[in-house]
Every structure is written in structure tokens, then in C-alpha cells.
Amino acid sequence: MTTAQARQDLAVQPTPLALLLLGREADTRSERGVECPGDLPSPSDPDLVARARAAKEKLGEKVFVLGHHYQRDEVIQFADVTGDSFKLARDAAARPGAEYIVFCGVHFMAESADILTGDEQKVVLPDLAAGCSMADMATAEQVAECWDVLTDADIAERVVPVSYMNSSADIKAFTGKHGGTICTSSNAERALNWAFEQGEQVLFLPDQHLGRNTAVRDLGLSLEDCVLYNPHKPNGGLTAEELRNAKMILWRGHCSVHGRFSLDSVNDVRERVPGVNVLVHPECKHEVVSAADYVGSTEYIIKMLEEAPSGSKWAIGTELNLVQRLANRFAADDKEIVFLDKTVCFCSTMNRIDLPHLVWTLESLAEGKEINRIQVEKETADFAQLALERMLALP
Predict the structure, then answer these.
(1) Is the pLDDT of residue 153 over 90?
(2) Could you tell me which residue, 102 or 21, shows the higher pLDDT?
(3) If you average pLDDT over residues 157-179, what whole number do you get?
(4) Residue 283 and residue 302: Cα distance in Å, rounded?
(5) Which three-class secondary structure state does DSSP give residue 373?
(6) pLDDT for the residue 348
(7) What phi and psi values does residue 31 have, to the nearest 5 degrees?
(8) String of DSSP letters for 74-115
(9) What is the C-alpha to C-alpha distance for residues 188 and 181, in angstroms, rounded to an integer?
(10) Mean pLDDT throughout 126-153?
(11) With DSSP H G I counted as helix, E B as strand and the rest as coil, what are the percentages for the chain, rounded to 5?
């Protein structure tokens, strides 16, 4: 056997997921898209801001730009409204006169906006490859297989799915079809209380940390009441008995940004900044949340800092674009705001929406070119909307 033949025999073929991550394949049932068509302006073009303003002015009332809190400052300056994913989707639904909804966020957010807006409105994502690593951790096929495992364990009838807003339309549709609801980081406690009124167990998708933190901190369950379902292992890596005894069946997913914060991060910042208040997002690990002074959603974090007294010190455990923006905003009020970790940690997929992509999007729409439209198939949208409506009806 020649060396070349040996190398060929040993060659590792890229998996579908690897090709997807490289932008060389597409999967319409996944959160992640592929590279965008068209020529983007150069990021060094000094006229980008003026070009974005001109295109937006030309579009006028036809366009409504949504900006997620984790977006870059260069993009957020053009947002008509800012907020978290669900707030922005509802804001879009409240603007039926806008023909184009430009969502400066990630794919699952644009899907939710498409589900909640009118059929005549077009939701546009400036970069189709702006996905969400957490949402990618639960595919429709994996969740269907999980439900088969629960059925074989003879517990599916008493399990209620609760899916985090940070999930694909397919996962939201699965949730609606199986009697479950969607939740945000703000209303997860209410969603779980509702779910336990409907059934005896909860399948929480796709963020294990939000599910665990809410169950233990807010509902008073124990860590032993929670089991972790790993979609990459047979039967999720769990026995039928473990599944039957669990109150919370947590999906093995997490946020790549919030998952980086550690207990060491908390201990270190307390040493570096005496008297600091540690404020973190509930997508952080349980030990981080347990060691923090305050825990809450993005909107909660902003509100806490708005109401904080002058001279107070804060270490924030969430995405760095937002932390830097808040630090600059409140510097004049003598509020010291630092990032919880020493390591820079932007959301890489959220940061794919940059000024060149936004300019290209607005100029294309101004020229009458329809690009990067996000459309959710009707049956999927109907079941996903059912799950979202259950959330809106939560007591």
C-alpha cells in the first residue's frame, strides 16, 4: 500500500454538521444558514454610515429595523426598536404597515418574527449565517427521537415540553404539537408552574442551565430532580428508571457565551473589585447563578442598572456588546460596570450582523431586490404559534 493510499484510507470525511458550520451545506430544518449572495461593501468604507442612513430614509415607513441587545453599536444605531428576542418579535407584529422587517439578530429570532407578523410582511435577516449555537444543539430529528425514548419509557403522556425562545421554529412547532409552551428567561418560572399543572414531568429544551436554575432556584426542586438528556448517546444516556423518576428532563444544550462564565470568574471579580454586585443571566451555569447576587434576563439586567445608586459597582455576566454599552451609558452616573470574566466573549453569530451586511440589505431593499427573506412553512408556523400563544396566556 502506498502512502497516498494509506492517507486516503485514513481520511476523515466531513460530517453534515461540519459542512454546515463551514457554510458548505444548507439545512432548512436547522438554525444555521449559509453564506449570503451578493457583494458586500468593504468594512473599511468610510461612507457606510451615510449609505445606511440614505437607504433607510429612501425606504421610509416600508422598513422597520429591529436590533437585539447583543448587536454591535455600529448596527444598533440604526434600530427603530431594541430589545430581547421576544419583545422584538412582538414589536414587529405591532407594525403591520411595515413591508420589510429587518431583524438584526439571529435566525431563530427572525423565524419568530415571521410567525407573528402578517403574511404580507417580509422578514429579512442581513446575514443568513447568523445562527445560534444553543438553538443548533436541538434538531427536529433529535427531539423526535427523544420523544420516542420517552414513549418507550412509558412516560410521554405525562411529560409536557417547555421550549426556550432560543430555539428553531421546528422545535417550537414540536412543543405546540405536544401540548407544551414556549418561555423566555423572564417568564420561565411561570411556564414551568403551568407545565406542572398540565403534567407530572417537563422536557425542557434546549438550554439545560435556564431549566435547571429555574427549577431549583424558583420552584424549589432539587438537583436530583433533574436529569440531563444527551441526544448524542443512546436513549439520551439515561435509563428508563432515571427518566421515570425525574421531574425535569433537561436537554443537553447551552449558550456558548453564558456557558463560559465560571465560579472562578465570580470569585476573581469579588477580589478585584471590593463591594461589587454580581449580576448574571440565568443561562449561566448553576454554580455561577448560585454565587451571584442577582440573576435575571437581559431586560432585568438593564433595569437593575438603571435603578442602581450612583457609586455602585457591578460585574455583569452576559454578552460583552451589551455590557460595554451599559458601562458607557452609566459612566456619567458614577456606576462602575465591568465584564464578569477577564476573557473577551462576544456572541460570534450575533456579531455576523455588521454594518456592511446591514448596508447591503437596506440598499438592496431600496432597489426593490428581495433578499434573505425568512419564511417558516405554514404547518410549522401554525404549531409554533400555538405554543407561543400558550406562553402569552400564562397566568
Answers:
(1) yes
(2) 102
(3) 97
(4) 16
(5) strand
(6) 83
(7) -75, -30
(8) HHHTT-SEEE-HHHHHHHHHT-TT-SEEEEES-HHHHHHHHH
(9) 10
(10) 94
(11) 50, 15, 40
